[in-house]
Amino acid sequence: MSLVFAGITPHPPLLLPTIGKEEVKKIEKTKKAFLQLEKELYATHPDIIIIISPHGSFFIDAFTINACPEFITDFKEFGDLATKIKFKGETMLAYKIRKTAFAQNLPTATISEPLLDHGSGVPLYFLMSHLKKCNLLQLGFCDLSYKEHVEFGNIVQEVIQNTNKRVAVIASGDMSHCLTSEAPGGYAAEGKIFDEKIQSFLANQNLAGMLQMKPEFINSAGECGFRSLLILAGILQGINCDYRQLCYEAPFGVGYLTAYFKL
């Protein structure tokens, strides 16, 4: 049928009560934003959810399409061995994206990895809590040019437009990891500037501005979500939509942005 939802999320494992415990209180705004985003997503009745994660299998010169028939969350890296949520994979859409990308000479790598990294697992823990029958497809970015990330998004859009399913897309990614001296990446002045620019570009749907950002500047900002956003921008290119920002906060020196596009 069509694209019915597009959202942007961070992925702090501390959001999960089994991991964050008392620390969850420090990102209460983000938690509330996730709950609101879940309501917005649920109202669109998607059949398939595509999630773009920065932390899945990574190939330098090819976009990743995870065509696994079944997924399960994996948080053992963060001390949580109990939270195991299963999702049915979306293999047909994966095949169509691979086929279309091949026809357009854009490199992709098809994998079958059942364990979901936290870049996927954290958002899905909240967003699919009432969407048990939805199929899931995980995509990953690479080191190809920013323009090629948008082109990959265009391909995903083309496939979505030609399916008879209702499809939602989630771009997972944290903003700068360098906003304070206590941040995981230490302090970098570029961090705050990057986060402010990204929010402005998204609000004004300024893809040209995003593409004009220098790689050196982006690397200095210490982000992990920029290329997820570029793929999402490609998926949304030419589609009439309004940007709705639900929350931005950075209590741990990492920028957490939660937003969606009203289609």
Q: DSSP helix count? A: 9
Please tell me the CATH architecture by its name: 3-Layer(aba) Sandwich
Strand content: 15-25%
List the helices and strands in order. Answer: EHHEEEEHEEHEHEHHHHEE
Sheet/helix structural class: alpha/beta
Task: State mean pLDDT (0 to 100 scale).
Answer: 97
Termini separation? 14 Å
CATH topology: Protocatechuate 4,5-dioxygenase, Chain B
Rounded to an integer in angstroms, the radius of gyration calculated over CA atoms is: 17 Å
Low-confidence stretches: none
Shape: globular
According to DSSP, the number of beta strands is 11
Question: What is the CATH superfamily?
Answer: LigB-like
Q: Tell me the major beta sheet.
A: 11 strands, mixed
Looking at how many chains there are and whether they match, the oligomeric state comes to single chain
User: Helicity level, as a percent range?
Assistant: 25-40%
Number of domains: 1
CATH class: Alpha Beta
Task: For the structure shown, list the relevant keywords.
Protocatechuate 4,5-dioxygenase, Chain B; 11-stranded mixed β-sheet
